[in-house]
């Protein structure tokens, strides 16, 4: 079973490594560091190793917004994303929780829907030809 905890700066390199394995570069290192420093990064642990992480803020019209849910490719389909989402819903500081994913990311859409999130809108022109789908959940 996995455990969830707040990320610490000592976790940054592993978090960046997981992020890089998914997106192909480490361009979000500074953003991830800021999330950890502001205590807005959760990690899912499997056998004392970081398996995935979730970052969040409350900058989406004053509501909680899940920025990233990233799980290491070898740890996918083991419940890490679900555990991170469910934990965040419990600790979120606002009643309304939002997130988003690309239209092409059908796996994440399934994760959101299995966890009670509903589609709430669409944003065009962020990624060329791949609209961003907004998801919503009431706490």
Automatic annotation (TrEMBL):
<dbReference type="GO" id="GO:0016747">
    <property type="term" value="F:acyltransferase activity, transferring groups other than amino-acyl groups"/>
</dbReference>
<dbReference type="Pfam" id="PF00583">
    <property type="entry name" value="Acetyltransf_1"/>
</dbReference>
<feature type="domain" description="N-acetyltransferase">
    <location>
        <begin position="1"/>
        <end position="139"/>
    </location>
</feature>
<dbReference type="InterPro" id="IPR000182">
    <property type="entry name" value="GNAT_dom"/>
</dbReference>
<keyword id="KW-0808">Transferase</keyword>
<dbReference type="InterPro" id="IPR016181">
    <property type="entry name" value="Acyl_CoA_acyltransferase"/>
</dbReference>
<protein>
    <submittedName>
        <fullName>GNAT family N-acetyltransferase</fullName>
    </submittedName>
</protein>
